[in-house]
Specification:
By secondary structure, the chain is an alpha/beta fold. The chain has two domains: about 200 residues, 3-Layer(aba) Sandwich (Isopropylmalate Dehydrogenase), CATH 3.40.718.10; about 140 residues, Isopropylmalate Dehydrogenase. The protein has twelve helices and twelve strands. Strands 3-4-2-1-5-12-11-6-7-10-8-9 form a twelve-stranded mixed sheet, with helices on both faces. Helix 4 packs across helix 6 and helix 8 packs across helix 9. The C terminus is likely disordered.
Length: about 350
Amino acid sequence: MTKPVVALTLGDPAGIGPEIALKALRKRNLCKHVNLVLIGDPFVLESIAPCFSHVPNLPHFSSIEQVADAGTYPCLLNLNHRRFNISPGRLDARCGRISIDYVKEAVRLATTGKIDGIVTGPIHKQAWAAAGSRFSGHTEMLASASGSRDFAMAFFAKDFLTVLLSTHLALKDALALLSVPLLERKVDLTVRALKEMGIRRPRLAVAGVNPHAGEGGLLGDEEIKFFSPAIKKCQEKGLNVSGPYSADTVYLRAARGEFDAVLAPYHDQAMLAVKTLSFGHATNITLGLPFVRTSVDHGTAFDIAGKGVANESALVDAIEKCRDLIRGRQGHGSKHPQ
Protein backbone atom coordinates (compact mmCIF):
# COMPACT_ATOMS: atom_id res chain seq x y z
CA MET A 1 0.00 0.00 0.00
CA THR A 2 1.31 3.44 -0.97
CA LYS A 3 2.29 5.52 2.02
CA PRO A 4 0.08 8.61 2.42
CA VAL A 5 1.72 12.03 2.20
CA VAL A 6 0.89 14.11 5.28
CA ALA A 7 1.71 17.76 5.86
CA LEU A 8 2.74 18.68 9.40
CA THR A 9 2.51 22.41 10.16
CA LEU A 10 4.96 23.66 12.79
CA GLY A 11 2.41 25.78 14.66
CA ASP A 12 3.40 28.93 16.55
CA PRO A 13 7.21 29.25 16.42
CA ALA A 14 7.29 30.60 19.97
CA GLY A 15 5.50 27.52 21.30
CA ILE A 16 6.42 23.85 21.54
CA GLY A 17 5.20 22.91 18.05
CA PRO A 18 8.59 22.93 16.31
CA GLU A 19 10.20 21.04 19.19
CA ILE A 20 7.65 18.21 19.28
CA ALA A 21 7.70 18.02 15.47
CA LEU A 22 11.42 17.21 15.47
CA LYS A 23 11.05 14.89 18.46
CA ALA A 24 8.31 12.98 16.65
CA LEU A 25 10.65 12.36 13.72
CA ARG A 26 12.96 10.45 16.04
CA LYS A 27 10.31 7.72 16.39
CA ARG A 28 11.73 5.20 13.97
CA ASN A 29 8.52 3.34 13.21
CA LEU A 30 6.52 6.51 12.58
CA CYS A 31 7.89 7.24 9.12
CA LYS A 32 7.65 3.62 7.98
CA HIS A 33 3.97 4.10 7.21
CA VAL A 34 3.62 7.79 6.34
CA ASN A 35 5.54 10.33 4.25
CA LEU A 36 5.84 13.50 6.32
CA VAL A 37 6.30 16.98 4.89
CA LEU A 38 6.90 19.63 7.55
CA ILE A 39 5.58 23.03 6.54
CA GLY A 40 7.56 25.90 8.03
CA ASP A 41 10.83 27.80 7.80
CA PRO A 42 14.43 26.72 8.44
CA PHE A 43 15.05 29.57 10.88
CA VAL A 44 12.14 28.35 13.02
CA LEU A 45 13.75 24.92 13.34
CA GLU A 46 17.16 26.54 13.94
CA SER A 47 15.66 28.52 16.82
CA ILE A 48 15.04 25.36 18.82
CA ALA A 49 18.52 23.91 18.30
CA PRO A 50 19.37 24.49 22.01
CA CYS A 51 16.67 21.92 22.86
CA PHE A 52 18.60 19.16 21.09
CA SER A 53 22.05 17.67 21.22
CA HIS A 54 21.61 16.92 17.55
CA VAL A 55 19.06 18.60 15.25
CA PRO A 56 17.91 16.38 12.37
CA ASN A 57 19.23 17.63 9.03
CA LEU A 58 16.01 17.70 7.03
CA PRO A 59 16.19 18.23 3.27
CA HIS A 60 14.56 21.55 2.30
CA PHE A 61 12.34 22.10 -0.73
CA SER A 62 10.63 25.21 -2.05
CA SER A 63 7.64 23.47 -3.67
CA ILE A 64 5.61 20.31 -3.21
CA GLU A 65 6.49 19.36 -6.79
CA GLN A 66 10.16 19.29 -5.82
CA VAL A 67 9.27 17.10 -2.86
CA ALA A 68 7.36 14.67 -5.08
CA ASP A 69 10.15 14.52 -7.64
CA ALA A 70 12.78 13.85 -5.00
CA GLY A 71 10.65 11.43 -2.99
CA THR A 72 12.72 12.28 0.07
CA TYR A 73 10.80 12.06 3.34
CA PRO A 74 10.60 13.42 5.96
CA CYS A 75 11.46 16.86 4.66
CA LEU A 76 10.74 20.56 5.13
CA LEU A 77 8.66 22.61 2.70
CA ASN A 78 10.28 26.01 3.15
CA LEU A 79 7.82 28.91 2.94
CA ASN A 80 10.74 31.32 2.98
CA HIS A 81 9.46 33.89 5.44
CA ARG A 82 11.72 36.75 6.39
CA ARG A 83 13.84 35.78 9.36
CA PHE A 84 13.20 37.35 12.76
CA ASN A 85 14.27 36.60 16.31
CA ILE A 86 11.92 34.21 18.08
CA SER A 87 11.44 34.54 21.82
CA PRO A 88 10.15 31.22 23.21
CA GLY A 89 7.01 31.63 25.28
CA ARG A 90 6.35 35.19 24.14
CA LEU A 91 3.23 36.34 22.29
CA ASP A 92 4.28 37.71 18.90
CA ALA A 93 2.06 38.78 16.01
CA ARG A 94 4.80 37.74 13.58
CA CYS A 95 4.62 34.21 14.91
CA GLY A 96 0.86 34.33 14.58
CA ARG A 97 1.15 35.46 10.97
CA ILE A 98 3.52 32.75 9.79
CA SER A 99 1.64 30.02 11.67
CA ILE A 100 -1.46 31.13 9.74
CA ASP A 101 0.51 30.92 6.51
CA TYR A 102 1.61 27.38 7.38
CA VAL A 103 -2.02 26.28 7.69
CA LYS A 104 -3.09 28.09 4.53
CA GLU A 105 -0.37 26.33 2.54
CA ALA A 106 -1.34 22.96 3.97
CA VAL A 107 -4.99 23.55 3.02
CA ARG A 108 -3.98 24.61 -0.49
CA LEU A 109 -1.97 21.43 -0.93
CA ALA A 110 -4.76 19.24 0.46
CA THR A 111 -7.57 20.78 -1.58
CA THR A 112 -5.56 20.44 -4.78
CA GLY A 113 -4.76 16.80 -4.10
CA LYS A 114 -1.01 17.32 -3.59
CA ILE A 115 -1.11 15.72 -0.14
CA ASP A 116 -3.42 13.25 1.55
CA GLY A 117 -3.91 14.84 4.96
CA ILE A 118 -2.87 17.50 7.45
CA VAL A 119 -1.59 17.39 11.01
CA THR A 120 -1.45 20.82 12.63
CA GLY A 121 0.96 21.91 15.33
CA PRO A 122 -0.45 24.02 18.18
CA ILE A 123 -1.20 27.67 17.48
CA HIS A 124 -1.79 30.60 19.84
CA LYS A 125 -5.19 32.18 19.36
CA GLN A 126 -4.09 35.56 20.71
CA ALA A 127 -1.16 35.58 18.29
CA TRP A 128 -3.59 34.89 15.46
CA ALA A 129 -5.77 37.75 16.62
CA ALA A 130 -2.73 40.04 16.86
CA ALA A 131 -1.90 39.07 13.28
CA GLY A 132 -5.37 40.15 12.18
CA SER A 133 -7.05 36.76 11.86
CA ARG A 134 -10.84 36.67 12.23
CA PHE A 135 -10.80 32.99 13.14
CA SER A 136 -10.86 31.74 16.71
CA GLY A 137 -8.91 28.61 15.89
CA HIS A 138 -7.91 25.94 13.41
CA THR A 139 -11.36 24.40 13.03
CA GLU A 140 -13.10 27.54 11.82
CA MET A 141 -10.25 28.52 9.51
CA LEU A 142 -9.97 25.07 7.96
CA ALA A 143 -13.70 24.93 7.29
CA SER A 144 -13.70 28.39 5.71
CA ALA A 145 -10.59 27.79 3.61
CA SER A 146 -11.93 24.51 2.25
CA GLY A 147 -15.49 25.74 1.72
CA SER A 148 -16.93 23.26 4.22
CA ARG A 149 -20.38 24.27 5.50
CA ASP A 150 -21.06 21.32 7.79
CA PHE A 151 -18.14 20.54 10.06
CA ALA A 152 -17.42 19.63 13.64
CA MET A 153 -14.60 19.64 16.15
CA ALA A 154 -14.05 16.17 17.55
CA PHE A 155 -11.60 14.36 19.81
CA PHE A 156 -10.70 10.70 19.79
CA ALA A 157 -9.86 9.55 23.30
CA LYS A 158 -10.21 6.35 25.28
CA ASP A 159 -11.43 4.51 22.16
CA PHE A 160 -14.45 6.73 21.60
CA LEU A 161 -15.13 9.96 19.76
CA THR A 162 -16.36 13.15 21.41
CA VAL A 163 -18.01 15.52 18.95
CA LEU A 164 -18.79 19.15 19.78
CA LEU A 165 -22.02 20.76 18.60
CA SER A 166 -20.26 24.15 18.73
CA THR A 167 -16.63 25.23 18.86
CA HIS A 168 -15.03 28.27 20.50
CA LEU A 169 -18.10 30.21 21.58
CA ALA A 170 -19.24 31.86 24.78
CA LEU A 171 -21.63 29.52 26.59
CA LYS A 172 -24.64 31.77 25.95
CA ASP A 173 -23.86 31.79 22.23
CA ALA A 174 -23.39 28.03 22.14
CA LEU A 175 -26.80 27.51 23.75
CA ALA A 176 -28.43 29.98 21.34
CA LEU A 177 -27.04 27.93 18.44
CA LEU A 178 -28.81 24.70 19.45
CA SER A 179 -31.43 23.42 17.02
CA VAL A 180 -32.87 20.16 15.72
CA PRO A 181 -31.19 20.53 12.28
CA LEU A 182 -27.83 21.30 13.93
CA LEU A 183 -27.89 18.09 15.94
CA GLU A 184 -29.00 16.06 12.91
CA ARG A 185 -26.08 17.38 10.84
CA LYS A 186 -23.55 16.64 13.57
CA VAL A 187 -24.93 13.11 13.94
CA ASP A 188 -24.50 12.53 10.20
CA LEU A 189 -20.90 13.78 10.33
CA THR A 190 -20.17 11.55 13.31
CA VAL A 191 -21.67 8.44 11.76
CA ARG A 192 -19.68 8.99 8.56
CA ALA A 193 -16.43 9.46 10.50
CA LEU A 194 -16.94 6.35 12.60
CA LYS A 195 -17.69 4.24 9.53
CA GLU A 196 -14.43 5.47 8.02
CA MET A 197 -12.79 4.24 11.22
CA GLY A 198 -14.18 0.78 10.49
CA ILE A 199 -17.24 0.81 12.79
CA ARG A 200 -20.12 -0.54 10.69
CA ARG A 201 -23.00 0.43 12.96
CA PRO A 202 -21.86 3.27 15.22
CA ARG A 203 -23.52 3.75 18.59
CA LEU A 204 -24.00 7.43 19.40
CA ALA A 205 -24.99 9.05 22.68
CA VAL A 206 -26.16 12.65 23.05
CA ALA A 207 -25.19 14.46 26.24
CA GLY A 208 -27.73 16.83 27.77
CA VAL A 209 -26.89 20.45 28.35
CA ASN A 210 -28.64 20.83 31.70
CA PRO A 211 -28.03 19.03 35.03
CA HIS A 212 -29.50 15.52 34.88
CA ALA A 213 -30.44 16.20 31.23
CA GLY A 214 -33.04 18.68 32.39
CA GLU A 215 -35.05 16.39 34.70
CA GLY A 216 -38.01 16.37 32.32
CA GLY A 217 -37.96 20.14 31.96
CA LEU A 218 -37.53 21.01 35.63
CA LEU A 219 -33.93 22.13 35.13
CA GLY A 220 -34.13 23.46 31.58
CA ASP A 221 -36.00 22.64 28.40
CA GLU A 222 -33.26 22.36 25.73
CA GLU A 223 -33.44 18.58 25.91
CA ILE A 224 -37.18 18.64 25.23
CA LYS A 225 -37.07 21.34 22.53
CA PHE A 226 -34.01 20.24 20.59
CA PHE A 227 -32.36 17.01 21.66
CA SER A 228 -35.26 14.55 21.91
CA PRO A 229 -36.89 15.54 18.57
CA ALA A 230 -33.54 15.37 16.77
CA ILE A 231 -32.71 11.99 18.27
CA LYS A 232 -36.11 10.65 17.20
CA LYS A 233 -35.53 11.84 13.62
CA CYS A 234 -32.14 10.17 13.54
CA GLN A 235 -33.60 6.93 14.87
CA GLU A 236 -36.28 7.03 12.15
CA LYS A 237 -33.42 7.09 9.61
CA GLY A 238 -32.09 3.87 11.13
CA LEU A 239 -29.24 5.43 13.07
CA ASN A 240 -28.27 4.07 16.48
CA VAL A 241 -28.55 7.33 18.44
CA SER A 242 -29.84 7.61 22.00
CA GLY A 243 -30.21 10.13 24.80
CA PRO A 244 -30.16 12.82 25.91
CA TYR A 245 -28.17 11.50 28.84
CA SER A 246 -26.93 13.23 31.94
CA ALA A 247 -23.46 14.53 31.16
CA ASP A 248 -22.08 13.47 34.53
CA THR A 249 -22.17 9.78 33.54
CA VAL A 250 -22.40 9.46 29.75
CA TYR A 251 -18.67 9.94 29.11
CA LEU A 252 -17.81 7.28 31.67
CA ARG A 253 -20.27 4.93 29.96
CA ALA A 254 -18.58 5.62 26.62
CA ALA A 255 -15.13 5.03 28.12
CA ARG A 256 -16.37 1.65 29.34
CA GLY A 257 -17.40 0.70 25.81
CA GLU A 258 -21.15 1.36 25.75
CA PHE A 259 -20.96 4.02 23.01
CA ASP A 260 -18.67 4.78 20.09
CA ALA A 261 -19.27 8.53 20.27
CA VAL A 262 -20.74 11.19 22.51
CA LEU A 263 -22.12 14.44 21.11
CA ALA A 264 -21.48 17.34 23.47
CA PRO A 265 -23.53 20.57 23.39
CA TYR A 266 -20.67 22.95 24.23
CA HIS A 267 -16.89 23.15 24.28
CA ASP A 268 -15.94 22.83 27.94
CA GLN A 269 -18.31 19.96 28.69
CA ALA A 270 -16.52 17.94 26.01
CA MET A 271 -13.02 19.06 26.90
CA LEU A 272 -13.37 18.35 30.61
CA ALA A 273 -14.14 14.73 29.75
CA VAL A 274 -11.51 14.41 27.02
CA LYS A 275 -8.66 15.90 29.03
CA THR A 276 -9.56 14.06 32.21
CA LEU A 277 -9.69 10.72 30.43
CA SER A 278 -6.83 11.10 27.97
CA PHE A 279 -4.81 14.28 28.35
CA GLY A 280 -1.73 14.05 26.15
CA HIS A 281 -3.12 11.07 24.25
CA ALA A 282 -6.28 12.45 22.67
CA THR A 283 -6.39 13.47 19.02
CA ASN A 284 -8.23 16.49 17.68
CA ILE A 285 -10.09 15.65 14.44
CA THR A 286 -12.04 18.04 12.23
CA LEU A 287 -15.06 16.30 10.73
CA GLY A 288 -16.65 17.39 7.47
CA LEU A 289 -13.55 18.55 5.59
CA PRO A 290 -12.67 17.29 2.08
CA PHE A 291 -9.39 16.02 3.55
CA VAL A 292 -8.26 14.44 6.81
CA ARG A 293 -7.03 16.80 9.49
CA THR A 294 -5.84 15.90 12.97
CA SER A 295 -3.97 17.71 15.71
CA VAL A 296 -2.75 17.47 19.28
CA ASP A 297 -5.03 17.90 22.27
CA HIS A 298 -2.93 20.66 23.84
CA GLY A 299 -1.79 24.20 23.16
CA THR A 300 1.48 26.02 22.63
CA ALA A 301 2.62 25.49 26.24
CA PHE A 302 4.42 28.84 26.41
CA ASP A 303 5.48 28.04 29.97
CA ILE A 304 7.85 25.29 28.81
CA ALA A 305 8.64 26.49 25.27
CA GLY A 306 12.34 26.51 24.48
CA LYS A 307 13.27 24.33 27.46
CA GLY A 308 13.51 21.04 25.62
CA VAL A 309 11.09 19.23 27.94
CA ALA A 310 7.96 19.10 25.74
CA ASN A 311 6.41 15.66 25.22
CA GLU A 312 5.73 14.64 21.63
CA SER A 313 3.37 11.73 22.40
CA ALA A 314 0.17 13.56 21.42
CA LEU A 315 1.70 14.61 18.11
CA VAL A 316 2.81 11.07 17.33
CA ASP A 317 -0.73 9.90 18.09
CA ALA A 318 -2.15 12.62 15.82
CA ILE A 319 0.11 11.61 12.93
CA GLU A 320 -0.79 7.95 13.31
CA LYS A 321 -4.49 8.75 13.53
CA CYS A 322 -4.25 10.94 10.41
CA ARG A 323 -2.64 8.04 8.56
CA ASP A 324 -5.33 5.62 9.73
CA LEU A 325 -8.17 7.99 8.80
CA ILE A 326 -6.72 8.52 5.32
CA ARG A 327 -6.65 4.77 4.79
CA GLY A 328 -10.15 4.54 6.23
CA ARG A 329 -11.48 7.06 3.75
CA GLN A 330 -9.81 5.28 0.88
CA GLY A 331 -11.19 1.95 2.02
CA HIS A 332 -14.62 3.47 2.59
CA GLY A 333 -14.69 4.46 -1.08
CA SER A 334 -14.86 8.22 -0.65
CA LYS A 335 -12.02 10.68 -0.44
CA HIS A 336 -14.40 13.57 0.15
CA PRO A 337 -17.31 13.85 2.57
CA GLN A 338 -20.71 13.73 0.93
